[in-house]
Every structure is written in structure tokens, then in C-alpha cells.
Design goal:
CATH architecture of the largest domain: Orthogonal Bundle
Number of helices: 16
Structural class: alpha+beta
Radius of gyration: 38 Å
Distance between the termini: 56 Å
Order of helices and strands: HHHHHHHEEEEHEEEEEHHHHHHHH
Number of strands: 9
Length: 450
């Protein structure tokens, strides 16, 4: 046997070795592909195909039959409603993630110092279990302008009424022909000292009279002293019917607590408040003619609170509802990052004399920067797609003032506009805005994995 033959016999089995290994790797790839195929199929059907279809649809008209090129994108940036949606989306992106990240950071730090930390975290995280639909209905009721329905306005009205009295007779008005009404809503008549003047009012329901109100007839029958101007403010209405207009009848009630002023030459010289029977008096007046005035403050409508869902405050109000839902999410994520911080660095800072604020600002926040960035970017992606809260909370008349890109896309496509071409262009715009944030988050995640 030659040396060459021996070498070939020895090399034969070794050369055959890599082939089974390649076949094994091939089988492994095939098995992996079979397992991944259902997920890829769903991803293609539910994500890739709709994205590609929307991009293609954005180049056609509302009917989908005529190719219009970039006309939908041009119209999108000329439409005032779309520009307002872009502006509101910008407000959401700038305000909501920053507030949520800040609140989550503060609460995560404070929770560490609370005995019942787990229960506190649970309470703050519970809104995450509520659907956006239910949360929108809850806050739509909470923001109701009627204080008898909206809890926020009920609280605001209660605080307001503590510091400022409300008028007792918001529905009262002067009897036509007996009193003159000014532009500011006040009522007046003229009288001189030594006279008794009657000021008849209507529009007050008997059940709305103050409990201390008493009949006005005795007050109207009193005699007037020299130099004194006396009068009575009363409800010119007799329960059950009857009575004479402009005259005080036996069963007619006085209006207590009514402010009355005496003016001369346009200047107030005296003021008083009516008694339980509606009577008032101005003693020691000089001779001459006076204007007896019931100021407009007597008839001012009651304070109704804040118009939370008006054109001015509707977007901040909806952002407030969003904060209620997502604050727990931010707190839990930041709290998880906080638990991984090196305690020796914090203790070393305390031993060096740093106070808690300095530790928080110079050590805790810098070490938590990666976590804070992930939370912030995740929330940015989320707020760009917000739809449910805006659509449910904002009433119809102010829907356009609160609209964001997601709601505008739906309104244009299905909410009456029936222009799927323009709606698809809005969807593409929203995708373009979201993709950079998603790419940033994915890259940061990969770097952290390394």
C-alpha cells in the first residue's frame, strides 16, 4: 500500500464529517422557519399588508378609482382641521410624556419611603386595568359643566361659594311698568325722603323663597318719619291666584337679603339690605329726589364652575384623563429601575454630607437616565396614537378643537368624510411620525442587551 493510498483512506472519513453537520443546520433552520411561519403570516396579514395597502390607497381619490398622485398629501396640509390636529398632537407629544415621566419619577422615589408601598403602587396602577372607553365615559361625567353631575365642577363651585356669596334671586326680575331696568341688569325707581316706595318683583318660585321670608304687607303699611326714605321689596305674586299687580297684598311675601342703594346725581349715598319682610330704610337723607336701586348683584346667575370641555380647556382636560391612566405605568417602570441602583453610591453620598435633594438630582436622576428615556419614548409613541379618550370625552361641538391625527384620520375616512384616500395619507403621516421613535427604542434596547 502506497503512502498516497494510506493518506486517502485516513482522510476519507474526515472529509465526510461536515456534510451531516450542514444537513443538521439546514434541518434546524427549516424547523425554525416552520415555527416562525404562523407568526410571520399573521404579521404580514395584520401589519405589512395594511401598511402597504394604505400607502397605495393614499395616491387615489375618495372613490379609489382615480390616481391622484400626491394631491391627498397636498390637501392634507391645506386643510385647517388637519393643521389643528397636527398642532394638538404636538401639544400631546410635548406635554403628556414629560408630565408622566416626571410624575412617575417623583412617585417612584416617594413610594420607597412609604410603609404601604405595595398597596400604594397597586392603587396608582389600577387605572391601567380600565379600558380607554370606560375611562373616557368616567371623565366625560366628571368634567360635566352641571355641578349636580360633574364632580370637578361641584368641588370648584363649593370652594367658590365659600369665599364669595352667590345671589339669592338669580331668576327675579322687576315688575314691568313699576321698575326701570338698566343695561347692567339692575332695577331702579325714584323717590324722596318722607315717602314709602314699593319694589315689586316677579320670577321667583314660592319654594325658592328663603326660609325666613315673612309677609310684606306689614312693612308696606308702616309710616315714614321725616327725612327717612322707606320701602319694601316683595314678590308680587299671590299663591293660588288673585291679588293686584304693583300692590302689596296680604299673602305676598317680602324678599329678605336684597341689596338696596340710594343714589343722588349718580353717586351712591346710602346702602342697606332688606329685612325678613322685605323692608328697608334710609334715615337722615337730605331733601331732594333719589334713585332707589336694586344692584345687578342681586340677580347674578349662580356660579356654574369651569367649562372643562369648552374649546379652550378640552385638550388639557383630556390630557389630565390620560395622566390618570398612565401615571401608574410610568411609576412602576421607573420604580423597577430605581430598585437596581447601586445602594453603595447613595450611602456614600449621604456619608459625604449630601442631602436628599442633592442625591436625587446628582445621583438618582443621572443613573436612571436610560430608564427615563425608555419610558419617555414609549409614551411618545403611545400619545401619537391616542384616539379613544379624545373621541369619547370631547363633545361634538368641540370635537374639532380637540382632534388629533388619529381621530382626524378616522373622521376623514369613516366619520362623515368618506374619503379613504385622504384618510390613508393621514395614516401614512402618522406612521412616518411614529417610526423614528420606534427605531430609537429598538436600538436602545439592543444596546442594553449587549
Amino acid at each position: 500500500m502506497t503512502t498516497t493510498t494510506l493518506v486517502k483512506q485516513q482522510a476519507g472519513p474526515r472529509a465526510a464529517g461536515p456534510a451531516p453537520a450542514r444537513r443538521g443546520r439546514r434541518r434546524g433552520r427549516l424547523a425554525a422557519l416552520l415555527f416562525v411561519f404562523p407568526a410571520l403570516l399573521l404579521l404580514g396579514a395584520l401589519v405589512v399588508y395594511p401598511v402597504l395597502f394604505s400607502v397605495g390607497r393614499s395616491f387615489f381619490d375618495a372613490s379609489g378609482t382615480r390616481f391622484v398622485g400626491g394631491d391627498n398629501y397636498t390637501e392634507m396640509f391645506r386643510d385647517p382641521a388637519t393643521l389643528k390636529a397636527i398642532r394638538n398632537t404636538t401639544v400631546w407629544v410635548v406635554v403628556a410624556p414629560a408630565l408622566l415621566t416626571g410624575l412617575g419619577l417623583i412617585l417612584a422615589v416617594l413610594v420607597e419611603k412609604v410603609r404601604w408601598a405595595t398597596a400604594f403602587k397597586l392603587l396608582l396602577f389600577m387605572p391601567m386595568a380600565v379600558s380607554f372607553l370606560a375611562a373616557g365615559i368616567i371623565f366625560r361625567l366628571a368634567y360635566d359643566e352641571d355641578p349636580d353631575k360633574g364632580v370637578l365642577n361641584a368641588a370648584v363651585v363649593s370652594v367658590h361659594d365659600v369665599f364669595k356669596d352667590t345671589s339669592r334671586y338669580p331668576t327675579a326680575r322687576g315688575r314691568t311698568g313699576a321698575l326701570t331696568q338698566d343695561r347692567d341688569g339692575s332695577y331702579r325707581t325714584t323717590a324722596s325722603p318722607g315717602e314709602a316706595v314699593t319694589l315689586p318683583m316677579v320670577g321667583v318660585l314660592p319654594k325658592d323663597l328663603p326660609k325666613n321670608a315673612s309677609p310684606a304687607l306689614p312693612a308696606a303699611a308702616r309710616k315714614t318719619a321725616p327725612g327717612e326714605l322707606r320701602g319694601v321689596v316683595y314678590l308680587d305674586f299671590t299663591p293660588g291666584g288673585g291679588g293686584r299687580q304693583g300692590k302689596v297684598d296680604p299673602r305676598e311675601s317680602g324678599l329678605p337679603g336684597m341689596s338696596v342703594e340710594a343714589l343722588r346725581d349718580g353717586r351712591r349715598v346710602a346702602s342697606t339690605t332688606t329685612a325678613a319682610d322685605g323692608s328697608f330704610r334710609f334715615p337722615s337723607l337730605h331733601a331732594g329726589s333719589y334713585t332707589v336701586k336694586l344692584p345687578e348683584s342681586n340677580f347674578a346667575p349662580p356660579y356654574q364652575g369651569v367649562s372643562w370641555l369648552g374649546p379652550t380647556l378640552v385638550t388639557p382636560a383630556i390630557i389630565g384623563a390620560y395622566l390618570w391612566i398612565w401615571t401608574g405605568f410610568a411609576m412602576v417602570l421607573i420604580g423597577a429601575g430605581l430598585s437596581t441602583l447601586p445602594r453603595d453610591a447613595l450611602e456614600a453620598a449621604r456619608m459625604d454630607g449630601a442631602n436628599e435633594w442633592q442625591i436625587f438630582r446628582r445621583i438618582t436622576v443621572p443613573l436612571l437616565a436610560p430608564v427615563l428615556t425608555v419610558v419617555f419614548v414609549t409614551l411618545v409613541i403611545n400619545v401619537m396614537k391616542v384616539f379613544d379618550l379624545v373621541y369619547i370625552i370631547a363633545p361634538g361641538p368641540v370635537q374639532e378643537d380637540a382632534t388629533v391625527l388619529a381621530t382626524q384620520m378616522w373622521l376623514v375616512s369613516f366619520g362623515g368624510g368618506n374619503n379613504q384616500g385622504l384618510g390613508s395619507a393621514l395614516g401614512v403621516l402618522l406612521l412616518i411620525l411614529v417610526v423614528p421613535a420606534m427605531v430609537f427604542n429598538v436600538r436602545r434596547f439592543r444596546r442594553s442587551q449587549r
